[in-house]
Amino acid sequence: MAGWERARRLPLAAEIALSFAAGAGTFTLSALVLAGVDAPVVAGLLGIGYLVAVIAIARFASIAYAVPVGMAAMLAFDWFYLPPTHPLEFPDSVNLLDLVVYLAVSVLLGGLAAHAARRATAAERARGEIADEQAGLRRVATLVARGAAPAETFGFVAAEIGQLYDAEVTVVLRYESDRTGTVVGLWSVPGAEFPHAARLRVDGVGAAAMVLETGRPVRTERFEGTEGSISQCFAQLGARSGVGAPITVDGRLWGAVVAATTRPDGLPVGSEEHIAAFTELVATAISNAQAHQDLRLLADEQAALRRVATLVAKESSPTEVFAKVAEEAAGVFGEVDCALLHDEGDGTANVVAVGGAGLAARYPVGTRLPVDGDGDGVAALVLREGRARRIDDYASAPGPVAAGAREQGIGSAVGCPVVVGERRWGAIVVARPEPEPLPPETEARIAQFADLVATAIANAEARAEVARLAEEQAALRRVATLVAEGAAPPVVFDAVAAEMESLLDADHLLVCRYEPGIELTVLAHRGSSAEEMPPGVRISHEGDSVEAVVRRSGSSARMESYEGARGMIAELARAAGLRVAVGAPIVVDGRLWGVVSAGWNREHSPPADTEQRMALFAQLVDTAIANADSRAELIASRARLVAAADDARRRFERDLHDGVQQRLVSLALDLHGAEAITPSGNDLLAAQLARINQGLVGALDELRDLSRGIHPAILSEGGLTPALKALARRSAVPVQLDLAIDERLGDHVEVAAFYVVSEALTNAAKHARASTVEVSAQVDAGILRLTIGDDGVGGADPARGSGLTGLTDRVTALGGTIGIASPPTRGTSLRVELPIVSQ
């Protein structure tokens, strides 16, 4: 039977020749048999045999073979059996009718038998094909149920379809958004080469293009397409027939299965409908895989977000959070790189973190990218519009930035803004080298990472703000403490300059006092140019500078650039590399007194609240100056009181010396004269006069002591050195003097120093039980420094009401200082400093 089937597939001319050869052979065989048979019965049996033979030939070969065979047998039967036998003429009508009926019956019966056989064979073949198809479907369904990877499923389906339907190439194709398709599954017979895992255009004439256009199963007998298309690949294989069936996933045309053959008879009829059953299983596999992938991606994404959120909650540094976000985002989105950029506000964005080897090599941390104007990169679009943007194919994006991205191997990208509060801080971008769109949900997924970045930045800024405020308050407290302690204005000025330089991260800090006209005096200076403008220097502020603007306006000011600015300060600023400056006024009692200014060498402008922060320190300078003025006025007032008291004592001493003391001296002389003229023998009167004279002398001595205590005359006449020497001579305790005073000091200074030494010697004699006292005095830098020390018992306490309290008041009233050290058993030491006032 197989031989007959092969014969039936011969060309038509060969089949005709073969059928006539079969007829001739049959005639010869019949003639040989019938020639030796005379009996009619035997001849009839042979006729029946011939009939069966014709029927068999029609059954197993075809009617085309049965007709010539039957006609040959009929002619042979007529020649040898029907009378008159062996005629050379055509059979008569009766014999012809018998022969025709004989032939028709044999052929008809053979055709019916052949038809029945064909139907039986077709049914058997169909049952086999259905069984094979069901077995193939079961194998595919088992693979799908087992959760095999999509790539494995695609290849298995392609092999099953190719083998079931006798195809030479079977392709599972995934449609892309740009009328291209990616070969995700492939099976072919040996020798049939087809690009695997390739991305091909879907155009021209072919099953893949027809399925894409119609979304239905199709059959085609022609494959034509452009270079690089899937139709052209089939055409190069010599495919003559092909079928395709769509793969529909969740109502969306996902791809197609295409089978093709080079045989002229093509693939079996209805193959496209049968293949559709396989595509449904493929769709199920894709849906299941997508569901599993979505769950896995969601789990991975949530885990990544938790890890980043943990860092944020731990108050990790922004740099650490940035690096973690870039790393996690690159891992979550798979086969992409991630970059985090900070908008610098100058038309560029700084790369602060990179995840993925591709971008890390092309755009390392610290790279500046242009994002100003009409920037055409995804980062520029995001920062300009403040919303998520994407570029699905950089090949079609115009502009230099897009061209640079293409050169760096970036095919597509998606970006999302990072918004901190109401401020657009920067952007997070994911990119892939392939020019194919990232999934549509990418923007929403990136936004979650952007929110965590924003939270981390906000937290870091809040912590930095708290730390800054704490540092600022600490600096203000330190300066305020100096002010409250009554530190000298130069000390306060220098402290303000130092604290502000550190707090503002400034490169230059000036505290200046405005002078009449257009000049100012530098009171404190911190920075690289401090040597060129030391404290005490007077310079002109004419021209363009924050100092000039503050003086004109009386309020804070800033300059963004000194390029092209006029004036001495502008020249000094340019020489020092100064780019940006901010100034705040110093106002004392409602009057503009001076200015505090800060400068930076960097291009970026300092924060907007810099003026306000500087004003806080300027207020402390105001207070320090006001306090210094008040203290100076108080000291001057107390000094005037001390001077007035000293003048009063001096007048009182002079009045005593010139008045009462002189009269007492005169009376003493008169009394001495009276004693001289007292008559001899009047002893009672002489004794009385002597007693009066002694009392008068004692009163005169007491008056001299009183006059000396009120204001020692020797101090006015000879100065501090003779007066201290006189005190040492009169002291009950030996005194060692070390005096280095070569000039007269101010009267009030000399009086104060005299009383300090006098009180110290008195205390040493009365309370300390000292054996010696050392007194040193010297003038240094306009300051009189006194040191008085004894070797007594110590333990002196000014609070117990000794004369030291009055001395302290006198010294401080003159703007001086006094220090007392009196540890028990170690003696007492006084250290006094008095500012000298010209006499």
UniProtKB/TrEMBL annotation:
Transmembrane feature ranges: 12-35, 41-58, 63-82
Q: Which residues form a coiled coil?
A: none
Record-given protein name: histidine kinase
Xref: SUPFAM superfamilies: ATPase domain of HSP90 chaperone/DNA topoisomerase II/histidine kinase (SSF55874), GAF domain-like (SSF55781)
Native organism is Kribbella orskensis
CDD domains in UniProt? HATPase_UhpB-NarQ-NarX-like (cd16917)
The protein's annotated catalytic reaction(s) are: ATP + protein L-histidine = ADP + protein N-phospho-L-histidine
The GAF domain, residue ranges = 149-296, 317-467, 488-635
The main place the protein resides is: membrane
Domain of life of the source:
Bacteria
Give the top-level enzyme category. transferase
- Entry-linked Pfam families: DUF4118, GAF, GAF_2, HATPase_c, HisKA_3
Quote the PANTHER family the UniProt record gives: NITRATE/NITRITE SENSOR PROTEIN NARX-RELATED, NITRATE_NITRITE SENSOR PROTEIN NARQ
**Keywords on record:** ATP-binding, Kinase, Membrane, Nucleotide-binding, Phosphoprotein, Transferase, Transmembrane, Transmembrane helix, Two-component regulatory system
Domain Histidine kinase/HSP90-like ATPase: residue ranges: 748-838
The Enzyme Commission number assigned here is: 2.7.13.3
What is the annotated localization of this protein? Membrane
Q: What Gene3D superfamilies does UniProt report for this protein, alphabetically?
A: 1.20.5.1930, 3.30.450.40, Backbone structure of the membrane domain of e. Coli histidine kinase receptor kdpd, Histidine kinase-like ATPase, C-terminal domain
* Membrane topology type: Multi-pass membrane protein
**Keyword Transferase tagged:** yes
